[in-house]
Amino acid sequence: MVTVNPDGKIMVRRCLVTLRPFRLFVLGIGFFSLCFLMTSLGGQFSARRPGDSPFTIRTEVLGGPESRGVLRRMSDLLELMVKRMDMLARLGNSSEPHRAAGDTHFAVDRFPPGASLMERIQAIAQNVSDIAVKVDQILRHSLLLHSKVSEGRRDQCEAPSDPKFPDCLGKVEWMRARWTSDPCYAFFGVDGTECSFLVYLSEVEWFCPPLPWRNRTATQTALKPLPKVQAVFRSNLSHLLELMGSGKESLIFMKKRAKRLTAQWAVAAQRLSQKLGAVQRDQKQILVHIGFLTEESGDVFSPRVLKGGPLGEMVQWADILAALYVLGHGLRITVSLKELQSNLGVPPGRGNCPLTVPLPFDLVYTDYHGLQQMKQHMGLSFKKYRCRIRVIDTFGTEPAYNHEEYATLHGYRTNWGYWNLNPKQFMTMFPHTPDNSFMGFVSEELNETEKQLVRGGKASNMAVVYGKEASIWKLQGKEKFLGILNKYMEIHGTVYYESQRPPEVPAFVKNHGLLPQPEFQQLLRKAKLFIGFGFPYEGPAPLEAIANGCVFLQSRFSPPHSSLNHEFFRGKPTSREVFSQHPYAENFIGKPHVWTVDYNNSDEFEAAIKAIMKTQVDPYLPYEYTCEGMLERIHAYIQHQDFCAAPGPAPPGTRALQSPFVLAPNATHLEWAQNASVAPGAWPPAHSLRAWLAAAGRACTDACLDHGLICEPSFFPFLNSQDAFQKLQVPCDSTESEMNHLYPAFAQPGRECFLQKEPLLFSCAGSSTKYHRLCPCRDFRKGQVALCRDCL
User: What molecular functions are annotated in GO for this chain (predicted)?
Assistant: First the structure.
């Protein structure tokens, strides 16, 4: 029973009114409790990693039972403190029920204005108690492993010499010297003894053989796979919008886009469902980590969303998220390093240890920034699970840059390459690199009513300039061709500015400022022409303009832009040459929707303007950039691309068994024989293969396009044999196997044939005047170059 005299009640009431003494008291409680916890554990805390909370616990050397006793005593102390504070709070609340909201604004909490003193104290106590629980869990985990190790005898903990585990002795030596370098080793039970080293290296990592005296029941019991669930198409995106989160302008932009396209996604899902019929689709658990939006990578995009910055990457990511969700798969979305670590199961420490649990995701979609973050924090698990990763890569990564050893030896190493992934794991914005997978994005598709309104509302003399940042208008020589254009058309711009008109924009240009997407679409529906200044490269805006009935006019580059002569491409993992601002629009759409001219030739430029004004075009959108086209493509990838279980090709130089090829009747190329057995697991289906010997100096990408086909790198293993050259009647006086991204190939001088030694270097890209490359080609679905005719 607690008795309180009147003087005591007055003093309590005064404290509750001002709260200043209690603020110091509450701060003191929190600080004392934290110091008490840390000193009781012997200062066993290591430095934080970037991105960790200030209260993230990381142990170097874990204590014993006495530490858990400290935790229990601290918990009892907190409980007693809370009970006594509760009495005081009830006294104060009963005497003064109405508190001023202004008394609650102090920095030690983030409570709503109505929160009581008791709630504050309880929350602080709960925070400290939560820390104690986390440390107790780590201690219990460590002691459990330590007790199991102690079951064995000292003489049973000598590093074995086993030829099946050649790295074991070296790893044990490394652990002796460096096991304290990362707290994650202590987390997994390493305590400096030989037994703990061997247990870790045999059960957590896989460099040493299992110890015979260990109880293998627990370590061998794998998590039972969840029962398979069939994916069901979704039409309501409201839950996806919740999963995407908020707080960043980039996320707000992406959510608005997904919401605006909801109806089109629903119609596309219905059409694809009817097309697939009774095809069974397993639901995949998918992690989407958008690395370039994390604070650790700088997140340079979010601040520029409202200032005319590039939106192409965010357009693509918004559409990827929508497509995966509409297809019915389970999604987890992260845009911070801390979220990534939590979802992957990263142990405490600096990233040198494997994950604490098997990766719970079938697929991981990320970008180069996210790929680097995963490698830094997954330890050996990165190598184990990297086959599940899909990298969203705008400009593509060619095999010569992807293979670390080859790139280093032959000058292809850049800041973005050398990951040793299957090149098909890189997914591009446009289908310019068949070595990679074409992911794409979507443009809004007009219905018939909207198309009729566009046809009737077009202004024949209105042009809109492609470029929202003032820096794009600094192009040298623009005054010349803009002056010509101004003679025939009214020019409109959508250049961002804050207070005054950007000086780079000529006075005769009507600048609307940065427009929201719906208003920008309305402007395009009125305009006749959408004109590019040569930059940005390969963005979504030209396709949006063409879909809204505009003609797109762009500059031809001579010489073509590449990493050899243009700063923008320098350092990117590709040798691709770009002959115009938007090669896809030029090569896959073309006239009358797309005109590519030399802006330095005034006569050619003016003639193009006159011809465009007389040309009537309807809104046009390639099928592969519709919602249905993207759903179809991603569905096929998820169903058929398996880089974890795909069998490797036969060793180079070995003769295949019965050849599956026959020479075509016109003796120009090889075809898959009709009576040949279908290659098991091959996707695309092998019967779509056509093999050609390219002209000297011709890349396989171009050689296949010359015949109206697409280069298919997954078919290279079928051609990597002497038999393929013989069937094509190529005279090989000698045959060698080497690492070279141009092989298999035939060298005319010397009549030498070369086979590929490294499967990761099979490449559609690349050419040399010395070689005639042996090129695998395939057909493709109309409007969907990523898929062959039988790929669904």
Answer: alpha-1,6-mannosylglycoprotein 6-beta-N-acetylglucosaminyltransferase activity
Reply yes or no on whether the pLDDT at 45 is more than 70: no
622 Cβ neighbours under 8 A, 6+ residues apart = 543, 588, 589, 629, 783
CA-based nearest residue to 633, from 764, 783, 765, 762: 783
Rg of the chain on CA atoms, in Å:
32
Dist. CA 434–CA 704, nearest whole Å:
11
* Angle (CA) 294 297 300, round 5°: 85
The per-residue pLDDT for 165 is 95
Length of the chain: 792
HSE on the CB side for 699, CA within 13 Å?
21
Which of 438, 460, 477 is a domain's end point?
Answer: 438
Q: Where are the alpha helices (DSSP H) in 277-367?
A: 312-326, 337-344
What's the pLDDT band for 65 if we cut at 50, 70, 90?
very low
User: What separation in angstroms does the CA of 657 have from each of 570, 678, 726, 759?
Assistant: 45, 14, 14, 19
From 372, 407, 438, give the residue that closes a domain. Answer: 438
Q: Which domain holds residue 206?
A: 156-214
**29 or 617, which is more confident?**
617
Which residue is it, tokens 């000086």? 503
The number of folded domains in the chain is 4
Q: Residue 541: which residues within 8 A CB-CB, separation 6 or more?
A: 466, 530
What pLDDT sits at residue 137?
A: 52
Percent of the chain residues topping a pLDDT of 70: 77
Query: Rounded distance, CA 393 to CA 579, Å?
Result: 20
| Burial annotation 176-194 (CB, 10 A radius, 16+ → b, else e) | eeebeebbbbbbbbbbebb
Q: How many Å apart are CA 670 and CA 774, to the nearest integer? A: 10
**DSSP state, residue 733:** S
In 3-state terms, what secondary structure has residue 227?
coil
Q: Which among 662, 658, 714, 719 is positioned nearest to 694, based on CA atoms?
A: 719
Confidence tier at 382 by pLDDT (50, 70, 90): very high
Do 245 and 354 belong to one domain? yes
Q: For residue range 645-695, list pLDDT tens digits in order.
A: 755 444 444 444 457 889 999 989 999 988 877 777 789 999 999 999 999
* 281 and 409 inside one domain: yes
> What pLDDT score does 681 carry?
75
In a domain, 57, yes or no: no
CB 529 within 8 A of CB 551: yes
Judge whether 394 and 428 are in contact, CB under 8 Å.
yes
Is the domain of 736 the same as that of 593?
no
Residue 94: exposure state from Cβ atoms within 10 A (0-12, 13-18, ≥19): exposed
Do 275 and 361 fall within a single domain? yes
30 domain residue, yes or no? no
As a whole number, mean pLDDT of residues 272-280 equals 93
The C-alpha torsion from 371 through 377 and 380 to 382, rounded to 10°, is -20
> Which pLDDT belongs to residue 309?
65
Domain match, 604 and 673 both: no
Q: pTM higher than 0.85, yes or no? A: no
Interacting residues of 148 by C-beta distance below 8 A, sequence separation 6+: 199, 214, 215
Hey, which residues does 662 pair with through a beta bridge?
Answer: 671
Q: Are residues 412 and 314 in the same domain?
A: yes
Domain assignment present for residue 630? The answer is no
What φ, ψ does residue 503 adopt, rounded to 5°? -65, -20
If pLDDT is split at 50, 70 and 90, which confidence band does 216 have? low
| Stronger pLDDT, 112 or 436, i.e. the higher one | 436
Q: Are residues 249 and 348 in the same domain?
A: yes
The reply to whether 644 falls in a domain is no
Strands 389-392 and 363-366, by their bridges, are: parallel
Lowest mean pLDDT among 17-21, 149-153, 289-293, 494-498: 17-21
The CA-based dihedral angle spanning residues 391, 253, 494, 503, taken in that order and rounded to the nearest 10 degrees: -80
Task: Please answer whether residues 324 and 351 qualify as being in contact, where contact means their C-beta atoms are separated by less than 8 angstroms.
Answer: no
Mean pLDDT score of the chain, rounded to an integer? Answer: 83
137 token code pair = 């869990």
